[in-house]
Amino acid sequence: MSNTTEKIEYVSYLDHQGKYKGIMSWLMATDHKRIGLLYMYAIITFFFIGVLLGLMMKLELLAPGETIMTAKMYNSVFTLHGILMIFMVVIPGLSAVFGNFFLPILIGAKDVAFPKLNRFSWWIFIVGSIMAVLSQLLKDGPPDTGWTFYAPYSTTTNSNVIMATAAAFVLGFSSILTGLNFIVTIHQMRAPGMKFFHMPLFPWALYATAWIQLLATPVIGITLLMLIAERAFQIGFFDPALGGDPLLFQHLFWIYSHPAVYVMMLPAMGVITEIIPTFCQRQIYGYKAVAISSLAIAAVGFLVWGHHMYTSGMSDQARWFFSLLTFIVAVPSAIKVFNWITTMYKGSIDVQPPFLYALAFIFLFIIGGTTGLLLGSVATNVQVHDTAFVVAHFHYIIFGGMGFAFFAAIHYWFPKMYGRMYDIKLANISLVIKFIGFNLLYFPQFIIGVQGMPRRYFDYPEQFQPAQVISSVGGFILAFGLFLMVYNLVKAAKSGAVAPANPWKGSTLEWQIPSPPSLENFDEAPIIKVNPYDYK
Amino acid sequence: MSEKTVHVDEHRDDEASKLGMWLFIFTELLLFGGLFLVYSVFRVQYHEAFHQSSLELSVTLGALNTVILLISSMTIAMALTAMQKNDQKRALIFIGITLFCAALFLFNKYFEWGAKFHHGLYPGSELMALLDRGHLLYFSLYFFMTGLHALHIVIGMTLLIVCYFQVKNKKINNKDYVLLENGALYWHLVDLIWIFLFPLMYLIS
Amino acid sequence: MFDNSSNFVQGVDSAFLIITGISVFFLVVLTGLMIYFVIKYNRKKGKPAVQIKDNSLLEITWITIPMILVLYMFYIGWEGFIPMRNVPKDAMEVTAIGSMWKFEFEYKGNKMSDTMVVPINKAVKVNLASKDVLHGFSVPGFRIKEDMVPQKDNYTWFIPGKLGDFDIYCTVYCGLNHSYMMSLIKVVSQEEFDMWLKALPVKKADNSLGLKLLEKNGCIACHSLDGSKVVGPSFKGIYGNMRNLNTNGIKKDIKVDDAYIKTSINEPDAQIVDGYPKGLMKSYKGLISDTEIEQITQYLKELK
Amino acid sequence: MANNTTHTIEYKTLVKILLILLFLTFITISVTSIHLGALTVTVALLIAGAKAYLVLSNFMHLKYESLLLRILVAMVFVLFALILVITFIDYAFR
Ligand code: HEA
Ligand code: HEA
Ligand code: CUA
Ligand SMILES: [Cu+2]
User: Does the beta carbon of A56 lie inside 6 Å of ligand 2?
Assistant: First the structure.
């Protein structure tokens, strides 16, 4: 660091000219902000494909019998929908997009610890995604196993399972590298003087998330490799016909995939924890409790995977053990909800789109989370396992939670990322439409789930039709709301009004710098506050 | 537009690289952890068959490979010591010995696997298909675990070869040797895994 | 208050009601608070925010209360579940066999049925087996569900308390026709049941090698033996019959003989029966030897 | 920003550690060739654990690293042990 600290002229990261020009300046970017945007564009593309597939399923389910596709096609559609949404949208989702963009800024750093590795993660994310797309196109036909790849069906069906699992493997690798990068960044790159407990809470959530990504993902990696080896060489790990044990596959799969749901959820909670204090102009209630509950969720979340297997024929001891731990892992989530709401008490509440999204998030998350409790209780799980009830649970929690948090985040940070402002009224309208559509879409599924409608059903008995129709209509309302939002944001990015550096009067570091930030974020050393949420 | 003088300073943080390497090692440990989990489950179920199958493996060859890996683990640690003492020549010799050991290990492995293949025992072979469950699982795991381990040896060797040349042209020196440190850490990981693989595969008869 | 279609309804439903009750309570209270705060402390009112210090007592309270509540929920859930694992000694045993994509029920004395008939108010133990992949045995009306795992003995049991028909669904995704894998449990009186069981024919042991091969390779999943159309054409009476082929738009009529069957197994896509899609059936080349094909052909000849 | 915090381990120490490791290897092999029944595996694994500890703390310099890193490494092993044990809650009681 020999250069003199001559004052550098401000150039935003969007206009900065480096070694590469044009599109290459993006593809070769090592700037964490550009990589964040790259992830965002890729993920939104996949998200739209996923939504389209979801709507296709809803059309098919409008009436019993075959409506727009064959059973075979339906099976590959929900498989692709699941793979796309889980591995390519929500797992990287918040952490790779907003984590990349804001983690360094929030802790007062210039970039992540390994910028080149960061770029590499994005590349292999794209490679993995291309492989996932290829698995649809290759000769043997699209995979039809569901995103869970349960053996022995996945070891015997003759669709492109190998390609799809290899894609998931590569995507997992990308996720590991992102996690690794964030942990090192948080340990080594905090601005001088910033202790762990001086960090804002979004970095805390990312920290907990990164540990899950790092430690759980290898397990699915090896599991998928074993599945591939089993298909290629007839090794009997999981297929009973070859001497394997299908339940072992389920154990290994969920050892990763349960913690993975917290990879989706923790950053979402982190975002909400940033938004609520800003719009209430009041410091977060119970900072330490919120920070530590993230770690607690991550830690206990590793040990509850068996709640996906209550009816698989596990030992009875394992059933009660997993049920008990599942209930315990719900408590830190409850703590967070209580803290958010208490933060609003005696605040000065400014009702802006990001805040409304946060409220919608809390409402939907409570529904999703508490239906998780019904699933976690062994007796009721027997009734609703593998029914539409589960589908409703995870859609509530994944997009009611993670999805609305994503929207909250994008509305919160949009002015910072692009330096422009969107139309607030339109944002509110689209939120209301989405909220209504969402509940219409998924609430009926709880009801038919309790009545026994199994999931992954292409066709269904007639008594379930009314609920399915309401649900399908809701799907289209939701999609319309989504369209309005995208229209609003794209228009704003192109020609929105210029936004001030701190439109919401936030107190964390990102609001101290110009919008959009310059290449190295801080042209002057940032002022580190002991309490990141100090509004005085 | 003229070149801006925004300087991207040559930021170097050895602590960060080392922490990064350790984290990567964690993921490798859990990758093999998954396999050890599968191994334990099947071993408990097919106790007898695992015993009998392991008789097929040569303890001598396994022990030899253990010794080789332990020695190589020491020499790479010594290479680091040499580098810290600014003794470039010795460092090169020690990396060389390590690479030699690695090659020897792979040679033995080739020999061992070759013998199995020769007897028609390899994944997907007709003989494998005829084995009963326990034996089949044992050999599947044997090939999978030692195969994955051998792959890690190859990766480790590549890393060390890079280190060798970096030491040679002084890119790695006694002021900046974190790459060698990380290469060594990776190599120890390979050793660490073998320390568990050896008794579990060869010594359970 | 609960209907008594089976002995588990009460345990499951009361757990369901209690957990739902607590959940709805929290949902309503928390949402109410949110709305109240938004109105009361709205910035438009112009009151500045009050910075409130953390209060450990409050935090401990709201860690403890949910903790107690979840432990209670766990307890009632477990209580409702325990009986499902304790089968009375005198239960009647029925083996339910799942295969792609149908249920079969084996009663004592090697009697087979494709619906399950049980006498009311008597304990029935259902042994669960699968011939190929995972299936699920779910009877929503009885609140029971357990997976059918190949080569593993799972079981469930129940005491039916109400006459009538109850749906059985396959709940574990098992491939193409997963959503058509359904059956019925008919709960009848003891006398009716005895009569039904007596009338149920004993399954004649068909030891034909060809049939074994068809079962072993999973052909039965797509080709029925009784003339019903499943995924592919039925095997019943195909040998010697005429077939309308429609391969890639080229129509052709052909008589089913040894050679045709052989190509159909080795290269199914070379000759497609009119009305069926290409690529559904995979090639069994290398998996079924020529002698085995002959045995299959032999069996098909006899299947009239 | 040189590496001046890293501890240098003398050649002599490294040789000593290697000798102990070789000795332990020798013990494992001889212990497992006399039949101890179920104990064999336990002993073999305990020795493997000791060897792993030596490699980690000396060859991998963990002895001289920060407390934080040492805790993290321990945490990874504990996590794996927990996962193993919990999986066996299923398998042991089936
Ligand atoms: C983001 C993703 C996400 C998250 C965060 C969760 C969170 C939870 N999940 Fe969910 N789950 C999924 C995604 C997720 N899940 C998916 C994708 C599946 C299906 C996979 C498949 O099979 O394809 C699934 C399936 C699933 C099952 C298996 C269902 C089955 O197949 O039988 C279970 C069972 O226990 C479960 C439970 C829970 C619980 C207890 C939580 C808890 O963490 C929830 C905690 C939150 C709250 C409790 C709400 C807030 C608290 C309050 C408002 C206070 C009041 C509460 C108390 C008094 C405790 N989930
Ligand atoms: C994130 C995950 C995600 C998302 C977003 C969706 C979106 C949708 N899903 Fe879902 N779905 C799954 C994950 C998801 N799904 C999974 C894992 C399965 C199980 C697959 C399997 O069984 O293997 C499943 C299964 C599933 C089924 C059940 C299939 C069956 O069992 O028979 C159905 C049925 O209608 C369905 C419908 C829909 C619809 C209509 C939409 C959408 O069209 C609705 C539109 C949604 C919105 C408008 C709001 C959501 C917004 C976000 C999440 C923000 C995302 C973030 C970025 C933009 C980066 N999905
Ligand atoms: Cu059988 Cu689904
Ligand atoms: Cu889970």
Answer: no
CATH placement of domain C209-302: 1.10.760.10
Say if ligand 2 is within 6 A of residue A391 CB: yes
Q: Is the pLDDT of residue B23 over 90?
A: yes
Provide the shortest C-alpha distance from residue D87 to chain A (in Å): 7
Check whether B188 has a pLDDT greater than 50.
yes
| Binary contact (A214, B26; C-beta < 8 A) | yes
- Enter the CATH code of domain C92-199: 2.60.40.420
Cβ-based neighbours of A287, under 8 Å, separated by 6 or more: A197, A201, A531, A533, C54
**Ligand 1 atom nearest A147 alpha carbon:** 23
User: Among the atoms of ligand 2, which is closest to the Cα of residue A388?
Assistant: 31
Distance CA A7, CA C271 (A): 77
Q: Which residues of B touch A520 (CB under 8 A)?
A: 6, 8
> Rounded to whole angstroms, what are the CA distances from C223 to C96, C101, C115, C125, C236?
21, 11, 20, 31, 9
pLDDT of B200: 87
Question: What confidence score (pLDDT) does residue C279 get?
Answer: 67
Domain boundaries, chain C: 9-85, 92-199, 209-302
Other residues' Cβ atoms within 10 Å of the Cβ of residue C257: 11
Question: Which residues lie with the beta carbon below 6 Å from any ligand 1 atom?
Answer: A 148, 261, 264-265, 307-308, 326, 329-330, 333-334, 337, 366, 369-370, 372-373, 375-376, 381, 385-386, 390, 393-394, 397-398, 401-402; C 22, 26, 30, 66, 69-70
ipTM score here? 0.89
Fold of C9-85: Helix Hairpins (1.10.287)
Residue C253 has what pLDDT? 82
A309 lines ligand 2 (CB under 6 A): no
CB pairs under 8 A between B and D: 116
- CB of A406 within 6 A of ligand 2: the answer is yes
Share of chain C above pLDDT 90, in %: 44
pLDDT tens-digit map of D43-53: 888 899 999 99
CATH node for B39-202: 1.20.120.80
Tokens of C202: 């004993």
The range of the structural domain enclosing residue A86 comes to 24-512
Which of D76, D82, D90 lies nearest to residue A303, judging by beta carbons?
A: D82
The band of A8, judged by pLDDT with boundaries at 50, 70 and 90, is: low
Does residue A378 lie in a domain region? Answer: yes
Instruction: Pick A528 or A369 by higher pLDDT.
Output: A369
Residue located nearest, by CA, to atom 56 of ligand 1? A334
Report d(CA A435, CA A455) in Å as an integer: 24
Q: What is the pLDDT of residue A261?
A: 92
Supply the pLDDT for residue D2. Answer: 38
The two tokens of residue C254 are 């052909």
For residue B95, the SS3 value is: helix
**What does the pLDDT average to over A485-514?**
88
User: What's the pLDDT tens digit per position in C89-147?
Assistant: 999 999 999 988 889 999 988 888 889 999 999 999 999 999 888 999 999 999 999 99
Please list, residue by residue across A315-352, b when 16 or more beta carbons sit within 10 angstroms of its beta carbon and e when fewer do: bbebbbbbbbbbbbbbbbbbbbbbbbbbbbbbbbbbeb
Nearest CA to ligand 3 atom 1: C135
Domain limits, chain B:
39-202
Confidence (pTM): 0.90
Ligand 1 atom closest to Cα of A334?
51
CATH number at residue A117: 1.20.210.10
